[in-house]
């Protein structure tokens, strides 16, 4: 066990010396990996901020519940109490028939039309404001409200929510596709970098195999190289995204001032940064594993 740990420490130190011996190549590889990671990561951050902004305007999501003409005063009061106690409903406002008619009269050109009517054709209604901009929640609540006695019709004002969520789904799919393609590219970059390292140490590897070194023993230094290279690239990618957000926030602040709104993108959180570094390290490990395994297979097949 002590020998195993000692070899891990030596492998890590050897890898660190290799990076220190070629700082320019290390920096360039980190930049390549960082830029490739920054593209899907920036898309993810942008989508997360858009989703947060959509939640912030959730108060505009409403459901209109129109009552049957025969609904009594006590039934209306009971229905109002029931709606206010419904999970997912932020607030409930009652709009009487007369209030609805008065509001319609204020619409240009409608006063003359209403004057010709013998009686008020509008029903009493409730307007339920939702607590979240979730189309599925709106549809579920609408189905529940339709089953309530004395409810004649339910209308959901969630078309804008569905559009936003559809765009977010498309954006997430696009980010995932770009991320998957660039992940293969990062594995290929690490594979090629490790291959060049192997070529410079091919004689040493062959001698090690002849004296009984295991494949795990030979792979270990290259694993550390791939993992550290991935982590360096992940750090650069996170830095690129955060710098881009800071630059954009300066312009968004001016835009928000014009429209009287506070528009600001959030920086990467610790959990996001840790996930990026872990993902980059795994990609580096995969590239190193594929490259070293290919070379060892060639040696063993000879």
Polypeptide structure, described:
There is one protein chain. This protein is α+β, with helices and mostly antiparallel strands and 302 residues long. The chain has 2 domains: 2-56 and 163-301, no CATH class; 62-157, Alpha-Beta Plaits. The protein contains 10 helices and 4 strands; from the N terminus they run H-H-E-H-E-H-H-E-H-E-H-H-H-H. It has helices at residues 2-21, 23-56, 73-84, 97-105, 110-115, 135-146, 159-200, 202-210, 215-259, 270-301; strands spanning 62-67, 89-95, 125-130, 151-157. The protein has a 4-stranded antiparallel β-sheet. The longest helix has 45 residues, at 215-259. It starts with a helix and ends with a helix.
Query: Can you tell me the overall shape?
Result: elongated
Radius of gyration: 31 Å
Category by helix and strand content? alpha+beta
Summarize the helix and strand pattern as letters: HHEHEHHEHEHHHH
Distance between the termini: 32 Å
Our count of domains comes out at: 2
* Residues in helix, %: over 70%
Q: Beta-strand percentage? A: 5-15%
- The count of helical stretches stands at 10
Largest sheet: 4 strands, antiparallel
Strand line-up across the major sheet: 2-3-1-4
The count of DSSP E runs of length 2 or more, i.e. the number of strands, is 4
């Amino acid at each position: 066990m002590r020998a195993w740990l000692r070899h891990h420490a030596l492998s890590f130190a050897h890898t660190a010396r290799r990076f220190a011996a070629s700082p320019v190549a290390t920096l360039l590889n980190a930049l390549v990996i960082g830029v490739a990671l920054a593209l899907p990561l920036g898309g993810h951050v942008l989508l997360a901020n858009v989703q947060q902004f959509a939640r912030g305007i959730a108060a505009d999501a409403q459901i209109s519940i129109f009552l049957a003409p025969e609904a009594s005063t006590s039934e209306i009061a009971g229905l109002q109490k029931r709606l206010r106690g419904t999970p997912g409903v932020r607030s409930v406002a009652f709009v009487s028939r007369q209030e609805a008619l008065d509001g319609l009269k204020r619409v240009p050109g409608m006063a003359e039309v209403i004057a010709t009517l013998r009686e008020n054709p509008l029903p009493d209604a409730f307007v339920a404001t939702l607590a979240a901009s979730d189309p599925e929640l709106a549809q579920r609540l609408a189905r529940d409200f339709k089953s309530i006695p004395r409810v004649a019709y339910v209308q959901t004002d969630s078309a804008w929510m569905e559009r936003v969520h559809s765009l977010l789904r498309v954006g997430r799919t696009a980010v995932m596709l770009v991320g998957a393609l660039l992940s293969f590219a990062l594995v290929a970059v690490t594979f090629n970098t490790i291959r060049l390292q192997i070529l410079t140490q091919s004689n040493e590897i062959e001698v090690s195999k002849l004296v009984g070194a295991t494949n795990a023993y030979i792979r270990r230094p290259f694993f550390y190289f791939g993992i550290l290279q991935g982590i360096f690239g992940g750090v650069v990618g996170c830095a690129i995204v955060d710098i881009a957000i800071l630059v954009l926030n300066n312009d968004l602040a001016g835009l928000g001032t014009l429209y009287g709104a506070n528009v600001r993108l959030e920086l990467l959180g610790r959990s996001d940064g840790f996930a990026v570094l872990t993902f980059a390290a795994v990609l580096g490990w995969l590239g190193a594993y594929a490259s070293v395994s290919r070379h060892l297979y060639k040696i063993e097949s000879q």
